[in-house]
Amino acid sequence: MSAQAYTLERSVALSAVTRASSLTSRVFASLVSKSDPSSASVTKSDASPVTVGDYAAQAVVNIVLGAYFPDDPIVGEEDAAHLRKPESETLKRQVVQLVNEALALEEKEVVAQKKSWGDGPVSDEQVLAALDRGNHQGGNKGRMWALDPIDGTKGFLRGGQYAVCLGFLVDGEVQVGVMGCPNLPLDPKDGLPKEGDAASNSRSDLGVAFIAVRGQGASQRSLSSSGKEQSISMRQLTSSGLEDASFCESVEAGHSSHGTNKRIAELLGITKESVRMDSQAKYASVSRGDGDIYLRLPVGDGSYQEKIWDHASGSLLVHEAGGIVSDCRGKPLEFGQGRTLKLNRGVIAAPKGVHAEVIRAVGKALEEEGRGHL
Ligand SMILES: Nc1ncnc2c1ncn2[C@@H]1O[C@H](COP(=O)(O)OS(=O)(=O)O)[C@@H](OP(=O)(O)O)[C@H]1O
Ligand SMILES: [Mg+2]
Ligand SMILES: [Mg+2]
Ligand SMILES: [Mg+2]
């Protein structure tokens, strides 16, 4: 593939994610931080939260994608069903207003062949239709986008880590991944902001866009300025250097078994505390060496199917930063199976030099728990 592959997809994705990230930051500052988390969110049928920010960010990204690639299917986490109910009128109004504000922002990205989404504000119906464009069922043929408008909604509500995640796939393989992490510092040495602390959340060094194109490497740049992109890579570890390594894992034990992770650390000789954060910011963190190994082990009976939008952009970022991403058995993630990774269980991302060893330790730990069949 030529070095210039998917240039337009890359810049449109970056533009869409940058707009959506600025929207979610403003939603946090103006709405979420000023109310209690339960009133800032609606609980979905799977008991997970969704906010005005998730809806508005998905609509913005889908409208931008629609202007450039009107025929591309989109697999997005949210849809407009709840917003179409009469009792959601106020929420719908907020969403439409936020979408129009984000679309009116001055273009920071230089997108070749500039396209427009129409004259004047977009209507309620356009916003709802854009949200519903995310209803595609996925598959392994042709072009497709996978979108998580806010990944780590619980982190978002707490003022912690969350990410706007957009992947572009061809024939079930991720080719472009762009992720906006509004609460990550550009320089990891500056440390993560303290959750729920207003001064911390308004730090001017926060907000990073991560970008990866298959075969072209991974990079980061500030979300707030059109600063230069810096290339990023994982720390390359070998089995003899593992005592210096650290895990990056979910905040919620319900999403990845913390107890099993502890045993795996022991088996690998890792003594450092795990870094815990919500969202695909975990993939971003290991991609630039803030942590080294991302573990997301199946919980319970292992029946949960990971969603493609929770892993598309992040997995390419790690791949392009020098890592291997697989499920807990070492099998590559298969993104062409529909809306979920139904052929995979759990996710492991690690530097190339130690991935096989991590998979062996994961297998042994699951075996010891009587869950070797997972
Ligand atoms: N049971 C179970 N197992 C694994 N994963 C689940 C489960 N339930 C939900 N989810 C998905 O987890 C997404 C958030 O993942 P995180 O890694 O951020 O989890 S955590 O909040 O840090 O625990 C979250 O994404 P968002 O809804 O976009 O926040 C869900 O898609
Ligand atoms: Mg969700
Ligand atoms: Mg998610
Ligand atoms: Mg989400």
TrEMBL record:
Reactions performed catalytically: adenosine 3',5'-bisphosphate + H2O = AMP + phosphate; adenosine 2',5'-bisphosphate + H2O = AMP + phosphate; 3'-phosphoadenylyl sulfate + H2O = adenosine 5'-phosphosulfate + phosphate
Pfam family, one: Inositol_P
InterPro entries per the UniProt record, alphabetical: DPNP, Inositol_monoP_metal-BS, Inositol_monoP_superfamily, Inositol_monophosphatase-like, Inositol_monophosphatase_CS
Annotated binding of Mg(2+), by residue: E77, D148, I150, D151, D310
GO MF annotation, one: metal ion binding
Domain of life: Eukaryota
BP-aspect Gene Ontology terms: phosphatidylinositol phosphate biosynthetic process; sulfate assimilation
Enzyme class: hydrolase
Keywords from the named record: Hydrolase, Magnesium, Metal-binding
EC number(s) per entry: 3.1.3.7
Cofactor(s) in the UniProt record: Mg(2+)
Family under the similarity heading: Belongs to the inositol monophosphatase superfamily.
Protein name, as recorded: 3'(2'),5'-bisphosphate nucleotidase
